Amino acid sequence: xxxxxxxxxxxxxxxxxxxxxxxxxxxxxxxxxxxxxxxxxxxxxxxxxxxxxxxxxxxxxxxxxxxxxxxxxxxxxxxxxxxxxxxxxxxxxxxxxxxxxxxxxxxxxxxxxxxxxxxxxxxxxxxxxxxxxxxxxxxxxxxxxxxxxxxxxxxxxxxxxxxxxxxxxxxxxxxxxxxxxxxxxxxxxxxxxxxxxxxxxxxxxxxxxxxxxxxxxxxxxxxxxxxxxxxxxxxxxxxxxxxxxxxxxxxxxxxxxxxxxxxxxxxxxxxxxxxxxxxxxxxx
Length: 284
What we know:
With 284 residues, the protein is α/β, with parallel strands linked by helices. The protein is 38% helix and 28% strand. One of its GO terms (cellular component) is cytosol.
């Protein structure tokens, strides 16, 4: 009888220990569960003047660098955000956007900053929501004999060939911004205090046009509202990777108005401040 009681006691203790281990393992598993990581909204600017207001809005952020490209990770009103300083130009824009997507998997990319005006009705400090962007550095010329000079006004715009996910190649004269992102940006247009917010077409290229006839040629033939040096490259990478894209540009100078203002710093600040409001609208 005593022997049986001892065996029973040992079995009971063993069961309690097993239950304790199981309970402890369950608690450990629950403790180690990681909260679901939210995809950030990415906001790009080529220069410090185009991202500083965004960094101010984040307050606390972590800077991460890959090569020469800086990314600032934080939140704006509890909305996960990564701010990317792309550096200037199409190659930099494409390279930094590729890194951005690889490292942070953003749910949307806002490419914003300053631009030169093409439309005489759009003034310095007005902000253009780019419903589409085109590469104004992609042209071909017809043959001219030596001594016949250069005729850039007769250059022919070349479309951009993009291989789609299904393997088919399509030609694009321009790439659109995501319609929902455009709607979000327009929904906060009344919060912009420094000029008008308008829809338009953004031209991108690795040059800075200051010849009035050339600017008017772009505007009249291709419908460009403004020009800058990054948006199309970003749009192309985002398109290939199926990431929603939005272009926003604040006019810093214009040769085709009588504003007589050229202020990159203020335009960069104003545009970034507006982009903060766009982030909030998207984040809702």
